[in-house]
């Protein structure tokens, strides 16, 4: 990646220093992955890179101040569905023209990876593909030094590669990544079961014993549901009627008192 960056910097410097009307268009197909290139170009030449929107970079302050929506800069990374056609007409995708009608001189640099991988012979990191178009062998994946810095920061327990580079094996890649882990020993994650499920006994039991056996299926006791006490019908009355104990030789009065209480 550093070698490709040096090649792009030399090409951009040799072009934009000719005049203010010499501009560079970075033909970037993806939305992300070019931050490394944008940052270094801006720091090297002291100009911001023009992009369509800044929304996706709002949460990246280290990159945000290297970008702009001002079309008057000499380095562009703006995008358009017909960007290739615009370039053939010597126009930028954003449609900017010089203020005094002097035509702009534009070159296109297309960062690529697969295109260089399909070449049968070794080529330079910068290849001229047209009168004013170039391809740069740019890697979108992190380098080993970047991976090393990242792992040293988060200090993981284990690291597993997603893909295996050509000419090596999974074991060799693991050996390279092992010193970057928290422990030199490859500690596999251990999973603890939540509990043990017991087998129900096939025995005919009484209803009470059967309920107890069902509750014994799990180690932890099941929570007892809260039972709301239903108030007695007599307690619903706000007033308590006074009652007088009557002797047994007065049955008529006792009957009247009882009937009054039931009616209430």
Features:
alpha/beta, 7 strands, 264 residues, disordered C terminus, 9 helices, 7-stranded mixed sheet, 10% strand, Protein artemis isoform X1, Rossmann fold
Number of DSSP strand runs: 7
CATH topology of the domain at 1-137: Rossmann fold
Secondary-structure arrangement, i.e. CATH architecture of the domain at 1-137 = 3-Layer(aba) Sandwich
Report the C-alpha radius of gyration, rounded.
Answer: 41 Å
Helicity level, as a percent range? 25-40%
Q: Give, in spatial order, the strands making up the sheet with the most strands.
A: 3-2-4-1-5-7-6
Element-level helix/strand string: HEHEHEEHEHEEHHHH
The first-level CATH class name of the domain at 1-137: Alpha Beta
DSSP summary: helix tally: 9
Gross morphology: elongated
Largest sheet: 7 strands, mixed
The average pLDDT score comes to 74
Which class do the helix and strand fractions yield?
A: alpha/beta
Strand content: 5-15%
Q: Oligomeric status of the shown chains? A: single chain
């Amino acid at each position: 990646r550093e070698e490709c960056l040096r090649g792009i910097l030399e090409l951009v410097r040799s072009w934009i220093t000719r005049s203010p009307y010499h501009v560079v268009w970075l033909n970037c197909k993806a939305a992300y992955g070019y931050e490394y290139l944008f940052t270094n170009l801006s720091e090297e030449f002291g100009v911001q890179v023009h992009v369509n929107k800044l929304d996706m970079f709002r949460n990246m302050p280290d990159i945000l101040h290297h970008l702009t929506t001002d079309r008057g800069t000499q380095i562009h990374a703006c995008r358009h569905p017909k960007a290739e056609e615009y370039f053939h007409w010597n126009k930028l995708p954003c449609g900017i023209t010089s203020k005094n009608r002097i035509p702009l001189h534009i070159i296109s640099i297309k960062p690529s990876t697969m295109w260089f991988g399909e070449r049968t012979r070794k080529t330079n990191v910068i290849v001229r593909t047209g009168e004013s178009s170039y391809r740069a062998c740019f890697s979108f994946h992190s380098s080993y030094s970047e991976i090393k810095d990242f792992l040293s920061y988060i200090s993981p327990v284990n690291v597993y590669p997603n893909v295996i580079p050509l000419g090596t094996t999974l074991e060799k890649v693991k050996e390279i990544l092992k010193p970057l882990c928290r422990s030199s020993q490859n500690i596999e994650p251990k999973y603890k079961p939540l509990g043990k499920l017991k087998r129900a006994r096939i025995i005919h039991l009484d209803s009470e014993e059967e309920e107890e056996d069902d509750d014994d299926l799990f180690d932890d006791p099941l929570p007892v549901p809260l039972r709301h006490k239903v108030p007695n019908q007599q307690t619903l009355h706000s007033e308590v009627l006074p009652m007088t104990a009557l002797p047994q030789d007065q049955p008529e009065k006792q009957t009247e008192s009882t009937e009054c209480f039931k009616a209430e």
